[in-house]
Amino acid sequence: MTHHIILRVISILLFPFLLTFAIEIQMNGESTPGGGFQAGAILATAVILLAQIFGLKKAKQWLPLDMIKAFTCIGILIYAGTGFAGIAMKSAFLDYHLFSSTSTQSGQQLGIFLVELGVGLSVFSVIVLFYYLFAGRKA
């Protein structure tokens, strides 16, 4: 799509808004509808939009496959680490009140934020990974 200048310009202008919206959904996920899954899907949509307009080869230069795989692992580790921290402290899996010694509410907010961050990173990277794999195969 190198000759579609309007699509290229609009996608470049739209990307920061999609990124900002994904971050807003991620940051307010513990108190409003939305969270990690929705933020990850929106961010993946932004990356896939750029990949559709500029090509898969260019997208893999911006966001290499190894980086996507690393994001997947990091997201899973954040989620699992948050869960197993409760077990390590002799409590239940994903027991959030252990994350703060002063207030149960602040501990729960931190725990939920970490879980949502792990989910968002994993969802984003898996969706982009699937896109890379399916878009790059030879028919």
Which tags fit this structure?
mainly alpha; about 75% helix
Instruction: Give the biggest sheet.
Output: none
Task: Note poorly predicted spans.
Answer: none
What are the secondary-structure elements, in order, as H or E? HHHHH
- The N- to C-terminal Cα distance equals 20 Å
**What is the percent of helical residues?**
over 70%
Strand content: under 5%
Structural class label: mainly alpha
- Global geometry: elongated
What would the average pLDDT be, to the nearest integer? Answer: 88
Number of helices: 5
Total E-strand runs: 0
Instruction: Give the C-alpha Rg.
Output: 18 Å
Please explain how this structure is put together.
- The chain has 139 residues and is mainly alpha-helical.
- It contains five helices and no strands.
- The protein has helices at residues 5-27, 36-54, 56-62, 65-88, 104-135.
- Helix 2 packs across helix 3 (56-62) and helix 4 (65-88) packs antiparallel against helix 5 (104-135).
- The protein is elongated.
- The protein starts with a helix and ends with a helix.
- The model has no long low-confidence stretch (mean pLDDT 88).
Helices, strands, pairings?
Blueprint: H1 5-27, H2 36-54, H3 56-62, H4 65-88, H5 104-135
Helix pairs in contact: 1-2, 2-3, 2-5, 4-5
Give the structure's gist in a few sentences.
76% of the residues lie in helices and 0% in strands. The chain has 139 residues and is mainly alpha-helical.
